[in-house]
Amino acid sequence: MKTPQGAEEFIAEQKQQLSENPECANSSYNLGVALMQQGKLDDAIGAFNDAIGNSARMFEGYVNLGYIYFQKGDLEHVVFANEKAVEIEPRYARGYANLGFAHLQMEQADKAIQALEKALELNPKIVQAWANLINAYLQSDNEDKAVETGEKLIAFAPEFALGHNNLAFAYYCRNDFTKAIEHVDRAVSLGFEVHPEFLNQLEPYREKTS
Predict the structure, then answer these.
(1) Can you give the pLDDT at residue 21?
(2) Taking the complete model, does pTM exceed 0.70, yes or no?
(3) Exposed e or buried b for every residue in 169-178, given b needs 16+ CB within 10 A?
(4) For position 27, which CATH number holds?
(5) Is residue 121 part of a domain?
(6) CB-based contacts of 71: which residues, under 8 Å, 6+ apart?
(7) Would you give the DSSP letter of residue 191?
(8) CB neighbours (10 Å) of residue 159?
(9) Contacts for 47 with CB less than 8 Å, ≥ 6 apart
(10) Domain containing 27: what range?
(11) Is residue 168 part of a domain?
(12) For the chain, how many structural domains are there in total?
């Protein structure tokens, strides 16, 4: 019976193949995946870049680079990698969702909204994209669209705690404190750890409604 190949053996095999054929994009990609799984992110970046260099339309290489740069907190490279990914595969909804999140973190609300709306056009079930879209509208000072987006989200994902949390904050920003309390309590009941400062901000309004 053949024993499963270990990670180090697999890496050594890919390196051997690359020594014989340095332009083999598949071997570079496989090496990148193995290194990424070992947490050797910088080495994995080099391998994925080699793969892309030898096969410019290697969609999966850009996807994994985007993931690594996200782990490293390098948002500009997250944007670059995901832009390349959606350029190759325009129906890659997660790529647009990743772009939206990165733009949101960089406080580029308009770009975030554009990317997140595209993601949801392609796949309306990406709940995290809906949650980020709420925040993007809030970042652009459009509380009404933020509330509308949040209500759409919880209509099809009523157990999504982050959705209730973000919707609560949207209602708070719109000075609808009763609704804010309703949704923040729902988020807590679903196990979400609401920011203590937000709970403190709502406390005076609980007393008024009790």
Answers:
(1) 74
(2) yes
(3) bbbbbeebbe
(4) 1.25.40.10
(5) no
(6) 41
(7) T
(8) 11
(9) 28, 29, 31, 32, 35
(10) 1-56
(11) yes
(12) 2
